[in-house]
Amino acid sequence: MFKQLSILTLALLLASCGGSSSSNTSEPTPNPEPQPEPEITNEHLSGGETSTADVSADAFSSRSDNMTDTSRIATFELGDDFFQNPWVAGSASTSSRDGLGGLFNNNACQDCHIRDGRGHAPDEGSDDFNSILFRAARTHITQAQQQDMLNSLVANVPDTTVGGQLQQEAVAGVMPEVELAVTYEERVVTFKDGYQVTLRDPNWHFTNLRAEQGYYLDDDTLFSARVAPPMIGLGLLALVAESEILAKQDIDDANGDGISGKANYVWSVNNQDVALGRFGWKAGQPSLLEQSAGAFLNDMGLTSRLHQTESCLSHQTDCQQTPNGNGDSVNHYDYEVPDKILDAIALYSAHLSVPQRQNAYDDDVKRGKAIFMELGCQQCHTESYTTQYSAEHPELSEQKIFPYTDMLLHDMGEDLADFTRENTPGSSDDLYEFMATATEWRTPPLWGLGKTKTVDPDATFLHDGRARTIMEAVLWHAGEAEATKQKVLELTANEREDLLTFLNDL
User: Fold this and answer.
1) Which of 17, 141, 366, 425 could form a disulfide with 417 if both were Cys (CB 3.0 to 4.6 A apart)?
2) pLDDT > 60? residue 406
3) Cβ-contact 174, 102 below 8 angstroms
């Protein structure tokens, strides 16, 4: 018995050492196969080397992390100063910052782009329209006017009495064009497992149209509600190769997947030529310089070298008679926004950095990303690009970025369409801004999405701010995104949680 146990013990010892009961020779334990190191994708650096580590309420207000040139930093800070601080009416003692209005939407860039983030739609009963505006364009236009839009020569045909944008503010002595209000109708959306989300459908009201000023609105005018978008990563998007954007076009849906992305071509005031539209809710601006100059003119009533006359119409005599800040004799400024300031604002806008992601490699985040891809969201929200080289912006050059946008126009359905005064939606046949129709919107980048509420707890989502949460925004998707939305409605509670965990990490 003892002998049998000894043999058994020896066999077990030999086996544990990698030996054999039939051999007296021990062999060394083979080393396990080396495991490959996990691929370093740097997904957490959404803006490449420009990404900021700041995740505070100021997460959207940092300059490119790799900017070290002191003169460029000084220009960035100058742009920051003029972006944050208010402008005042013309002929003021603050000559470098005067010329506001006569009509305007806000007196400071930062009041719309709150902490350099997005704006919000007002709650029902609120008069907080400070970070949302309304474009106005006619649809019953001549064949020649329509052809000019299709040829990217003009953006649209403005409303006869209020022009291209409703302005609810004015300097002293000038009557605002309109007062604004909103009411909401609730819609309940039910997931396959019974989970429910309540959406709010806005009805916009234009009241007190100042009939004495001739403000009556054309019957065929469509309005476009637009909250201020976040300012981060814009310079990186400017350096995405045009060829990469156009490669994603599928205007006639040749591949039959229901997605028909379309580029918007627009008129470049700076270059006096047609260019690819990259910025704005309908990709109506070709560059950050022109986006900035357009905002100064339309949102604040300020002239610049790109827009040398104010936007007052011929019948807006009180607006036309307002003192402006052109021709400053002290500082020798030709326009209300002098070249130095306009260029500083453009550089500032280009270099607001994207926050680093905090949990990009966590299992639940990776599961959420996998769900995002399986749903087909990446068909419009393209994950990554490498930016081109730019001598003007070396910090932004040749960066691997993760913006999650194709920068193309997509038809999002009637629910999200531009609308009449009676809140009737426009159609996909109504041209609205160059080549973009009333139902088409540029795919917004998703980077920084999870920091939105950190930067401003009141911020809301989608172009008109109707969505209070990310899931509400997802559930408003229709048109080309309808099939994907239906797949979302089939997700389980755990899958929804993982998907939102991923989106909140962006």
Assistant:
1) 425
2) yes
3) yes
Q: Is the sign of the CA dihedral 160, 165, 169, 172 positive or negative?
A: negative
- 282 by Cβ neighbours in 10 Å (0-12 / 13-18 / 19+) ranks as buried
pLDDT at 324: 77
Given a contact cutoff of 8 angstroms between Cβ atoms, the answer to whether 155 and 266 are in contact is yes
Block residue for tokens 């300097």: 171
Is 11 part of a structural domain of the chain? no
Say how far residue 299 (Cα) sits from the centre of its chain. Answer: 18
The reply to whether 390 falls in a domain is: yes
Residue 496 DSSP one-character state: H
The burial of 82, by beta-carbon neighbours within 10 Å (0-12 exposed, 13-18 middle, 19 or more buried), is given as buried
User: Is 22 inside any structural domain?
Assistant: no
Q: Which long-range contacts (CB under 8 A, 24 or more apart) does 411-414 make?
A: 411/260, 411/437, 411/439, 411/440, 411/479, 411/480, 412/439, 412/440, 412/441, 412/477, 412/478, 412/479, 412/480, 412/481, 413/439, 413/477, 413/478, 413/479, 413/481, 413/482, 414/439, 414/478
Which domain, by its residues, includes 464?
48-505
> Residue 187 pLDDT more than 90?
yes
Q: How far apart are CA 234 and CA 228, in angstroms?
A: 14
Q: Is residue 150 within 8 Å of residue 87, measured between CB atoms?
A: no
Four-CA torsion 299, 301, 303, 309, nearest 10 degrees? 120
DSSP-assigned letter for residue 232: T
Decide if pLDDT at 278 tops 50: yes
Task: Assess if residue 156 is contained within a domain.
Answer: yes
Considering its fold, how many domains does the chain have in total?
Answer: 1
